[in-house]
C-alpha cells in the first residue's frame, strides 16, 4: 500500500501543479480555469509528454472525474430532477436512437465504411464516447484496428466540442438550462460534457451531468442489442453464448466470462459511479447533510474536476488524432450537426 502511494504521488503532484498554474493564468487573464487547465495540460503533454515516473498518478484522472461527479450530487436539487425526469428520459432515448440510426445510415449507405466500424462510431457518438466504443467492441468481437479508428474519431470530437459548444451557446444566447441539457444530450464523453457545462455556468454543468449520466446508463442495453444483431447477421450465437440461450461459459482457463445478454454483463458495463451520484443526491436532499457539509462537498468536487481535467489534457495526443481517416470524421461530423441542431430546437421549445 505504501509503495502504491509513493508511485502515485509524483503524478498527482503533476496534476495538481498543472491545475494550480491554470487557475493562476485564468485569474490573471480573466478566463475560465477549466478550459485553461485542459489547454495547459494539452500543451505540456504534447510538447514534453508524460514521464514514466508520473504516469501512474496522471492516469488516475478518470477516477477523479468520477469522484467529482459523485460528490457533486450534494449540490443538485432533487425536486428539479423529478420535475424534468420524464421529459429528460424521453429526450435521452430519442437522442440516442436518432444518433445511432443517423451514424449507421451515413456509415453504411453514404460512405461505405466497414459496418462494424460504423457501429462503434454510432455507439461512441450516441452514448458515452470511448467507453461505449470499447463496450460494443467487446460484445461483437471487433478487430482492434476498427476499435482504434473509432476511438480516435471520438477523441477528436471530444477535444473540439469541448471548446466549440460553450462558444456556440454564448453566441446563441442559450439559457443555462437549455445549454446544459443540450450538451448532455449531444456531446460524447463524460469528461468533455462536464468541462463544457461548468465552463458555461454551474447550473448548466449540473444539467449537463444529469442528462449525460442518464445516457451513460444505456451502454449495457446497447451492447446487448448490438451483440444480438451481429449474431443474427452471422448466423452464430453471441460471444460466449449457447445456441438456444445466452449463458455464462468457461473460458478454458478455469475462469468464466459474462455473455452479452447475461445480467452480469449488463452490470459489468453499467457505470457504477452513477449509483454513487444518486446516493449522495438522495442523502443531501433528505436533509441529512448540513449546509457546511454541502459546501465542503461542492469544494471537493471542484478540486476533483481540476485534477481530472489536468489529466484529460495531459493524456490527449494530437498525433494519435491525426491518424484517423477522413470518412469516419465526416460520418460523425454530419451526424453531430443533424442531431445537435434538431435537439437544440426541441430543447429550446421544451425548456
Textual characterization of the structure:
By secondary structure, the chain is an all-alpha fold. It has a domain at 63-217 and 271-350. Helices cover 77% and strands 1% of the residues. It has helices at 2-29, 33-47, 55-58, 61-72, 78-110, 115-128, 130-140, 144-172, 176-186, 190-200, 202-216, 219-234, 263-269, 273-285, 291-314, 318-321, 326-350, and strands at 249-250, 256-257. A hairpin with a 5-residue loop joins strand 1 (249-250) and strand 2. Helix 8 runs parallel beside helix 10 (190-200) and helix 9 runs parallel beside helix 11. It starts with a helix and ends with a helix. The model is unreliable at 240-257 (pLDDT under 50).
Structural class: mainly alpha
| Relative helix content | over 70%
| Helix count, DSSP H or I runs of 4 or more residues | 17
Q: Could you tell me the radius of gyration in angstroms? A: 20 Å
Strand order in space, largest sheet: 1-2
Mean pLDDT comes to 81
Quick gist of this model?
The protein is mainly alpha-helical and about 350 residues long.
Keywords:
single chain, two-stranded antiparallel sheet, globular
Question: What is the element layout, followed by pairings?
Answer:
Blueprint: H1 2-29, H2 33-47, H3 55-58, H4 61-72, H5 78-110, H6 115-128, H7 130-140, H8 144-172, H9 176-186, H10 190-200, H11 202-216, H12 219-234, E1 249-250, E2 256-257, H13 263-269, H14 273-285, H15 291-314, H16 318-321, H17 326-350
Antiparallel strand pairs: 1-2
Helix pairs in contact: 1-2, 1-15, 2-15, 4-14, 4-15, 5-6, 5-11, 5-17, 6-7, 6-8, 6-17, 7-8, 7-12, 8-10, 8-17, 9-10, 9-11, 9-17, 10-11, 12-13
